[in-house]
Amino acid sequence: MEIDHNFYMNLALQEAWKYQVLTYPNPAVGCCVVGKHGEILAVEAHHKAGEPHAEVNALQKAYYQLTNNSEILELFTSHDIHTFLIKNHNNLFNECSVYTTLEPCSHVGKTPSCANLLSSLGVKKVYVGANDFNEEAAQGNEILQNNNIEVETQVLEKECSDLLLPFKNYIKGRFVFFKWAQRLNGTFDQGSISSAESKKQVHLMRDKCDLLIIGGNTVRIDRPTLDARLVNGKAPDVLIISREKEFDKNIPLFGIENRKVFIADNFDVMKHYKNIMIEGGDILYELTKDFVDLYLCYLAPKIGGERAFKNIDDELEILNADKAGEDIIMWMKKAQK
């Protein structure tokens, strides 16, 4: 039976996109572990900077699937999982293949090297989507090959490279993404639109971003807090884009401790931040389109409202689509013409 390597890599990609931006300042990475007969043993992702990498999470679950030994599920640090697997693998992974969206890391830092772990476990083959361009963590493929593990690269390379776009921009200096929520008829006004699951995800992203940009009219009408209270996270600094500088300081966003709030008619303050989230509608979309890297749309299965995007004739390429509650989530970038 011919194996569809793209199928397994796509599973890893789908899982990784669920954590896009949430792994800042690390890249979003997904991994799929496949057994001897093509059975899926685990599909996992990197969840948060400082926590186990995608390969470690996937191998942890795969070990449990192969042994039913729940002891490994009680381990949470990357070091503990590495140590347990190396000590107890008993060659279980010799016939397994691993699909990872990014070259396994060679670097030993907050977490051990994934390339060293895969080598110690003696996996049969590793399929890699994108090679690591970060010199500190690169050369994992070489480690694997030096340990007689076969490596195949460039599996869904474009898709895996698209997943890394935020990380590439973090390294270069700045990543900017534009988020909005809309109904099926395209409207984005008049009250709450997104599901509870979507709102929680947005709060997780606010917790990771350095600066949140919003329009002055939205602040005056919605009187938002713009924090991450649903996940007990931090409130990012805020840039309000407005020609009028006077605002009611009783609006909740002004009452957050240890937060800087800027009111300006330009985006100069962005140069001091690395991970920037914009929440807005058509006006802010037009004002920021020259420097936005990715777009994130929450599409709710509702009809109503009055105001929709207008006088905009852009084409966007969907990089990933998923669900949060009843909403459809789409990560997009500007289409190449």
UniProtKB/TrEMBL annotation:
Q: Which BP terms does GO give this entry?
A: riboflavin biosynthetic process
Q: Which residues form the CMP/dCMP-type deaminase domain?
A: 3-141
The pathway this protein participates in, as annotated, is: Cofactor biosynthesis; riboflavin biosynthesis; 5-amino-6-(D-ribitylamino)uracil from GTP: step 3/4; Cofactor biosynthesis; riboflavin biosynthesis; 5-amino-6-(D-ribitylamino)uracil from GTP: step 2/4
> What Pfam families is this protein classified in?
dCMP_cyt_deam_1, RibD_C
UniProt cross-references to InterPro entries, sorted A to Z: CMP_dCMP_dom, Cytidine_deaminase-like, DHFR-like_dom_sf, Eubact_RibD, RibDG_C
Going by the UniProt record, its keywords in alphabetical order are: Hydrolase, Multifunctional enzyme, Oxidoreductase
Tell me yes or no: is Phosphoprotein among this UniProt entry's keywords.
no
Q: What family does the Swiss-Prot or TrEMBL record give for this protein?
A: In the N-terminal section; belongs to the cytidine and deoxycytidylate deaminase family. In the C-terminal section; belongs to the HTP reductase family.
Q: What does this protein do?
A: Converts 2,5-diamino-6-(ribosylamino)-4(3h)-pyrimidinone 5'-phosphate into 5-amino-6-(ribosylamino)-2,4(1h,3h)-pyrimidinedione 5'-phosphate.
PANTHER family listed in its UniProt record: CYTOSINE DEAMINASE FAMILY MEMBER, RIBOFLAVIN BIOSYNTHESIS PROTEIN PYRD, CHLOROPLASTIC
The record's listing under NCBIfam families reads:
eubact_ribD
UniProt name for this protein: Riboflavin biosynthesis protein RibD
Species whose genome carries this gene: Sulfurimonas marina
